[in-house]
TrEMBL record:
Location(s), subcellular: Cell membrane
Spans through the membrane: 48-70, 82-100, 106-124, 136-159, 171-190, 219-238, 258-278, 285-305, 311-333, 340-361, 373-395
Alphabetical UniProt keywords: Membrane, Transmembrane, Transmembrane helix
Record-given protein name: MFS transporter
Species in which this protein is naturally found: Microbacterium aquilitoris
Lineage: Bacteria, Bacillati, Actinomycetota, Actinomycetes, Micrococcales
Keyword tRNA-binding: no
Major facilitator superfamily (MFS) profile domain span: 14-399
Membrane-topology descriptor: Multi-pass membrane protein
Family annotation (Gene3D superfamilies): MFS general substrate transporter like domains
Major location category of this protein: membrane
Length: 411
């Protein structure tokens, strides 16, 4: 490789790094910036409970549906162009949401955002695999930490900004990061197109049946189960944990809000540490044991002695979502080929989110029917235990290609 080639590769990796960080930031800030402003928005136009319910429950559905479609989009248009469009849709949705004049406009803008996020969720591990195959752990740390920060930051500053400049500014400012993220992906998409034209090859991966193969592979199912366990506990906690704490531990709503922030904050150190442990030291099963045990102890503590140490139970429960960065790291490590990475990411996330969307709703209905939080907390314990058999499969260190080939021939 000539010096000019090395410079080109280095520039491409720098652009990809900037693009991945801005993409990851936009995927979470777009989702986390709305709910704190419902009261402020409600002063300008009516927000029916049905619309607020849809905005709260549609994200997992969109993540599942558009995560499922992401593999097909990537095959048709290429990785960089699909990323560019997904991020553009997120930016457009953020602008549309900030400009909404009624509840329907707010819902439409949110739907655009969630569609783009659903595709982007799937593509990030594939982007890391393509541009940083030798640094999967490090780059996964970078983007999962970015996601954690962009989940924590918007709710913290949304209301102060709205008080100072209005809710439209508070919502719309996050579009700046999405629109800025378009620049590196425009350059990389053009570069990928030029390289493909020079090599006289199609941008699409060779196989169009790779996603279908995931249904027959234990590792794919194990990753989907792990993703479900992590996201189900997280979404249920964000939806119901404050009410659970108020009803069972006797804390005030203000304290319950602080404890929910503690739950979210626990994910930050996990994002920093877990990818390196998985990628560099291949520590997988112990992390599953820790996550599962913490989930069981946290939900169990809220079940049997909620008022004794609510901060401890919340901290333990907040440890289970360490499985999220573990899954994202494993997607890159348990594949050899680019098309397998996209397909595995799409399978794990779309299936995981698809089942997750029923859990918070079911928890609420079960509580209404029983008048108690006992059964919902038992469900969280069961979900926490599901991670253990999945961890045994993922810890075998087999790629999906290695699982396929002995049974079905060459990949």
């Amino acid at each position: 490789m000539t010096s000019s080639d090395l410079i080109a590769v280095r520039r491409g990796r720098i652009l990809a790094l900037v693009g991945i960080v801005l993409l990851a930031f936009s995927l979470r800030s777009a989702v986390a910036s709305l709910s704190p402003l419902f009261d402020a928005i409600g002063e300008d136009f009516d927000l029916p409970a049905a619309v607020l319910g849809l905005i709260g429950t549609v994200p997992p559905l969109c993540f599942a549906v558009f995560g499922l479609l992401a593999s097909g989009f990537e095959r048709r248009f290429g990785l960089e162009r699909t990323t560019l469009v997904a991020l553009g849709v997120v930016g457009l949705g953020l602008v549309a949401r900030a400009a909404a004049i009624d509840a329907s406009g707010l819902l439409l803008g949110s739907a655009l955002i969630f569609a783009g996020v659903g595709v982007g969720n799937v593509l990030v591990p594939a982007l890391v695999k393509k541009y940083f195959a030798d640094r999967i752990g490090l780059l996964t740390t970078v983007y999962t930490t970015t996601m954690a920060l962009s989940t924590f930051l918007p709710p913290l500053i949304a209301v102060p900004i709205a008080d100072a400049a209005g809710w439209r500014v508070s919502l719309g400012l996050w579009a700046v990061f999405a629109l800025a993220g378009l620049a590196p992906w425009i350059v990389l998409a053009l570069q990928a197109r030029r390289l493909a034209a020079a090599a006289d090859v199609d941008l699409a991966p060779v196989s169009t049946r790779v996603f279908g193969r995931m249904w027959r592979l234990p590792t794919a199912w194990a990753l989907a189960t792990t993703f479900f366990a992590s996201s189900a506990v997280a979404y249920t906690s964000f939806a119901w944990l404050p009410k659970i704490l108020v009803d069972t531990a006797g804390v005030t709503p203000q304290v319950a809000g602080v404890l929910l922030s503690l739950f979210a904050l626990i994910g930050l150190p996990a994002s920093l540490v877990v990818p390196a442990l998985v990628a560099r030291r291949d520590i997988v099963l112990p992390l599953f044991v820790i996550a599962s045990a913490c989930g069981v102890l946290g939900a169990g503590g809220l079940l049997v002695a909620p008022a004794s140490a609510p901060w401890l139970w919340v901290s333990l429960l907040g440890t289970l979502p360490l499985l999220f960065p573990l899954v994202l790291t494993s997607v890159g490590l348990r594949t050899r080929t680019h098309d397998a990475t996209v397909a595995l990411s799409a399978f794990a996330q779309s299936l995981g989110y698809g089942v997750t969307m029923f859990i918070p709703l079911s928890i609420g209905l079960l509580h209404d029917a029983s008048g108690s939080w006992t059964a919902p907390l038992v469900i969280l314990i069961v979900i926490s235990l599901l991670a253990l058999p999945a961890g045994v499969v993922i810890a075998r260190r087999k790629t999906v290609e290695q699982e396929w080939e002995p049974r079905h021939g060459s990949w």
